[in-house]
């Protein structure tokens, strides 16, 4: 019996309006230009997501994992992508305050 390959649901189908670790990696991949902003990664395998995660992590290493260290053009793209993501997530019912209160 063959094992079913797990596939990613895609950033637009994520829980919490896409406020997850995997969705953040995808947004960062858009920021760094590894994939086009139209790529949702829907149906990607775990291995594909992991490879993207590794690329993004390597890129962040160059900037010390600090947004303030990004070059202006990348910083602008990062800010725009993150702002859009927060707006979409809030429209889908995501509440960051609830997530914080659940951690305590």
What does this structure look like?
The chain has one domain (18-93). The longest helix is centred in the last third of the chain and has 20 residues, at 72-91. The N and C termini lie far apart (44 Å). By secondary structure, the protein is mostly helical. The chain is globular and about 45 Å long. The protein contains four helices and no strands. The model has no long low-confidence stretch (mean pLDDT 93).
Helical segment tally? 4
Show unreliable segments.
none
Number of domains: 1
Sum up the overall morphology in one term. globular
Helix content: 40-55%
Taking the alpha carbons of the first and last residues, their distance comes to 44 Å
Strand residues, percent: under 5%
Number of strands: 0
Structural class by sheet pairing and helices: mainly alpha
Mean pLDDT: 93
The largest β sheet comes out as:
none
Q: Give the ordered list of helices and strands.
A: HHHH
- Spatial extent as radius of gyration: 15 Å
